[in-house]
Amino acid sequence: MDNLFVNKFPIPWSMTRAEKSTLIQLVKEINPEISIEIGTFNGGSLQVLSHYSKKVYAIDITPEYRDARCKELKNVDFLIGDSKKVVPKLIEKINASKEKVEFILIDGDHTTKGVLADITNVLKIIPYLPITIFLHDSFNPNCRKGILSYDYSKNPYVHNVELDYVTGAFNHDGLYREMWGGFGYIKLMPEKRIKPLKVSQYQEKLFKITYYKSIHFYRKCFGFLKPIYKVFKK
Ligand SMILES: C[S@@+](CC[C@H](N)C(=O)[O-])C[C@H]1O[C@@H](n2cnc3c(N)ncnc32)[C@H](O)[C@@H]1O
């Protein structure tokens, strides 16, 4: 597959071309003082955050990823551990020292509970500048449910929520009938919101149509047959 940015950012990453292009352009435009990434893996998205931010906090449960490909990224503070434990401490420190975070990427634990926990913990941040939060895999049914489970109206700094800022993909990376990718987006502003908040799902219909053709739907409906299938397979 042709990749327009392959030379500038050589570390392989787990995103579609549309997502890569969007992330590069957006982070370049924001030029963040500080970025946070939850979910580093090989360092694909981290190389972009590191390139355009002054400093990055990168969180991953697996230490090998930091050691494998990210050694050269000098402005990155690696925090190893479960984001459910690491993020609350990090946000507490950032709030206490009034650090100017401007961009956050959530791409770690992809379960519904995991996504909800990361959003809940990240949204405890006090915004001293506008903060853009990208939620990767908003097109995946479990992640989407996690994103939708949070009550954004209770946070006065949230001004905008869009689940389909970038639309996701079907059969992504050859994964049979699986729905992955997509960027959801949350905008935090230092001033409190005056108007009521609307959580937008620009491609909700596409999501629903795709879901009924997806493996996620079949698993939900026919998952109870799995033990029987295993018996017959032996
Ligand atoms: C999809 S990968 C991230 C891909 C990366 N952002 C990129 O675009 O190249 C997800 C990463 O989240 C990490 N992860 C999963 N659960 C986590 C958790 N509870 N806390 C921290 N990291 C976690 C995994 O180890 C994995 O490296």
From TrEMBL:
One GO term of the biological process aspect: methylation
UniProt GO MF annotations: methyltransferase activity
Keywords, sorted A to Z: Methyltransferase, Transferase
Name under which the protein is recorded: Class I SAM-dependent methyltransferase
